[in-house]
Automatic annotation (TrEMBL), chain B:
One BP term from GO: transmembrane transport
Protein name: Carbohydrate ABC transporter permease
Species name: Pseudomonas peradeniyensis
GO CC, any one term: plasma membrane
UniProtKB keywords: Membrane, Transmembrane, Transmembrane helix, Transport
Localization, UniProt: Cell membrane
Domain of life: Bacteria
Keyword Acetylation recorded: no
Protein family according to the UniProt entry: Belongs to the binding-protein-dependent transport system permease family.
PROSITE patterns: ABC_TM1 (PS50928)
Bilayer-spanning residue ranges: 15-37, 49-68, 74-97, 109-131, 143-165, 186-207, 249-271
Lipid bilayer topology: Multi-pass membrane protein
Domain ABC transmembrane type-1: 74-266
């Protein structure tokens, strides 16, 4: 049970080399589940190794329960870790694998037996205790690796892409189980993954990383609904958010984004002051599920007719691809929508949920959220 | 059902292959057979008959004489080989562990330089080694020979263990560190138990090298501290008195037996261990 705080953590492998971690700043409360997510090479595993003490940091501080542990060796930090490769000791059986850390810490044998039994029961691996890791399936090895981490009752659990070696079905099962485990044990957890679904489903807090920098730190909902920049917006969500480059026009003091599907045009009112956007290239960010099929009677939302180019029925959804402003745009529609390639659909956008990004910097333009609402009301009133 | 071997043409080629193989086997076995037969002959028998003839009477007199002559040196060889093999293997294992799991700045360069040791011919180290042994007061002693063999063997043993350990995932060491284990605990409890094949390779290799060594033995020992290879050479090369070929042959067999024994006992690990180190996934 512990809080974890990273203060300006900095890591480089040598002068002149690019920084691996830059000014990492985040804090999580006791019992929270933190996800570090990002593409490979973004520094998330390095950051985890730094938290574990397996790698030293070049600057800043790591605090566990408000105590600076930056200089401590891994064993003194009271942390347990589950590795992507499981890292089970191959010459020991499951029982000894789980008990190893307890033996090293000189726990009395009776207590060790009790602890192993507790963990084995929790993870339903009691029947495997006498087996060697080589005799276990991937999923079983995964459980044993978790058991080894659970046995010590550490302050913090670290998971380093624990599910990426499992097949798709098992991965989903284990994901739920990890979540269940965390709900029961309420131990502070840091979880590294490159899978944005794991990030969304497991985390209390998510830190999206790229190039050694935390791009955004927040709850999964904040990350999904309020991405800080183009990278976060494109990384989280599947199918990914659509990015449509738009031209802006001014009309009656309001700013309109022009959409062109080749067969129709539409003006999308944006809730920002005109002069803020003067002369800037803007990218419109729309999640596939935010594009809806136009109702028979107008509901007041702006819409555009566009030709269906590809359809991908996934089962629960129908993904429809159209072209807007020479960009492929994915729309997530109900599976019972009857449409074929070549059909023309009336697609609607909710201007209140559309995001704006600066094409140059990739930063989100989060200007006056209230103004958007005003605009919509005005639009509806028209 | 007709299998391939039923066809006469193939049968013929098969016979040819086996004939050639059998010939090769005989060719390779002849020296051994001659040695064995000669060692059981009486000196008169050797003088009268040809090399390949069957002994008129089997006698172990050659073996008992040979053992009486070389037994002291046989013990010397054991006293040199066993500690030298064990020490060089132990240090090599530790070196390999550090060079693969606990890399330090410059460890790759260190390893690279260490590899030069594998390519150095024996002859080049004779003078420096004898100088060092003299300074240490170990000249012409069994301990001195042990030291030379350990130092010379380290390059090989380190190479073996380092290449074997490189294929072990580093996460194992990380996991053990988080479990609270230290440098030696990880080595002793996790890494060493996984090392049986490469330990066997190392033991066989070092045993063969050190037991069969003649050059270091003849240079760095004298009189009673000589290993069996040197004693055998002295025995065979004596120019005084009648040549006792039966004794020579028996002594040569005695000198060769331990390596043979090591291969028989641990040989199955040899290929397995070598390839485990070489074929990195």
């Amino acid at each position: 049970m512990a809080t974890l705080e990273l203060r300006n953590v900095h890591k480089t492998y040598g002068a002149g080399l690019p920084d691996t971690l830059k000014d990492i700043q985040l804090a999580i409360k006791d019992g929270e589940f933190l996800i570090l997510v990002g593409p490979s090479g973004c520094g998330k595993s390095t950051l985890m190794n730094c938290i574990a003490g397996l790698e030293s940091i070049s600057g800043g501080a790591i605090l566990i329960d408000d105590e600076d542990v930056s200089g401590m060796s891994p064993k003194d930090r009271d942390i347990a870790m589950v590795f992507q490769s499981y890292a089970l000791y191959p010459t020991m059986n499951v029982r000894d694998n789980i008990a190893f850390g307890l033996k090293i810490r000189k726990m009395p044998q009776a207590a060790i037996d009790e602890e192993v039994a507790r963990v084995a029961k929790l993870l339903q691996i009691e029947h495997l205790l006498e087996r060697k890791p080589g005799q276990l399936s991937g999923g079983q090895q995964q459980r044993v690796a978790m058991g080894r981490a659970l046995a010590r009752r550490p302050k913090i659990y670290l998971f380093d892409e624990p599910l990426s070696n499992l097949d798709a079905k098992l991965r989903v099962e284990m994901r739920t189980e990890i979540k269940l485990m965390h709900q029961r044990l309420k131990t502070t957890t840091v979880y590294v993954t490159h899978d944005q679904i794991e990030a969304m489903t497991l985390g209390d807090k998510v830190a999206v990383m790229k190039d050694g920098i935390i791009q955004q730190f927040g709850t999964p909902q904040q990350i999904y609904n309020d991405p800080a920049n183009l990278f976060v917006a494109s990384f989280i969500g599947s199918p990914p958010m659509n990015f449509i480059p738009v031209r802006l026009t001014k009309q009656d003091g309001r700013v309109l984004a022009l959409l062109d599907s080749g067969q129709a045009r539409c003006e999308l009112p944006l809730g920002v002051a005109a002069d803020e956007l003067e002369g800037r290239e803007i990218i419109l960010g729309v999640r596939p599920e935010q594009i809806t099929l136009g109702a028979e009677q107008g509901n007041g939302l702006p819409g555009i007719r566009a030709e269906v180019q590809v359809t991908e029925p996934t089962g629960p959804d129908l993904l429809v691809f159209v072209t807007l402003n020479q960009t492929k745009v994915c729309c997530r529609l109900a599976p019972d929508v009857a449409c074929r390639v070549g059909d023309s659909l009336n697609l609607q956008f909710d201007p209140a949920r559309v995001l704006l990004f600066d094409a140059g910097s990739g930063e989100r333009l989060d200007l006056a959220a209230t103004a958007v609402k005003d605009n919509v009301t005005r639009f509806k009133g028209r | 059902m007709t299998s391939l071997t039923d066809k006469p043409a193939l049968n013929l080629s098969r016979i040819a292959i086996h004939a050639v193989l059998l010939l090769a086997v005989l060719l390779y076995l002849v020296p051994l057979v001659v040695m064995l037969l000669t060692s059981f002959k009486t000196p008169e028998d050797i003088g009268s008959g040809n090399l390949l003839s069957w002994p008129t009477a089997f006698t172990a007199i050659g073996w008992s004489k040979a053992w009486a002559t070389v037994s002291g040196y046989f013990v010397n060889s054991i006293l040199i080989t066993v500690p030298a093999v064990l020490i060089s293997t132990a240090i090599g294992a530790l070196n390999g562990y550090v060079l693969s799991m606990w890399r330090f700045r410059g460890s790759q360069l260190f390893f690279g330089l260490l590899l030069f040791g594998c390519f150095l011919p024996f002859q080049t180290v004779l003078l420096p080694a004898s100088f060092t042994l003299g300074k240490l007061g170990l000249a012409s002693t069994t301990s001195g020979l042990v030291l030379v063999h350990v130092v010379y063997g380290l390059a090989f043993t380190t190479l073996f263990f380092r290449n074997y350990y490189v294929s072990i995932p580093e996460a194992l060491v990380k996991a053990a560190r988080l479990d609270g284990a230290g440098f030696f605990t990880i080595f002793g409890r996790i890494i060493l138990p996984m090392s049986t094949p490469i330990i066997m390779v190392c033991l066989i290799w070092q045993f063969t090298q050190i037991w069969n060594d003649f050059l270091f033995g003849v240079v760095f020992s004298s009189g009673d501290s000589q290993p069996i290879t040197v004693a055998l050479n002295n025995l065979v090369n004596t120019s005084t008195g009648a040549k006792e070929y039966n004794v020579d042959m028996a002594a040569a067999m005695i000198a060769g037996l331990p390596t043979l024994l090591v291969y028989v006992v641990a040989g199955k690990y040899f290929v397995r261990g070598l390839t485990a180190g070489a074929v990195k996934g």
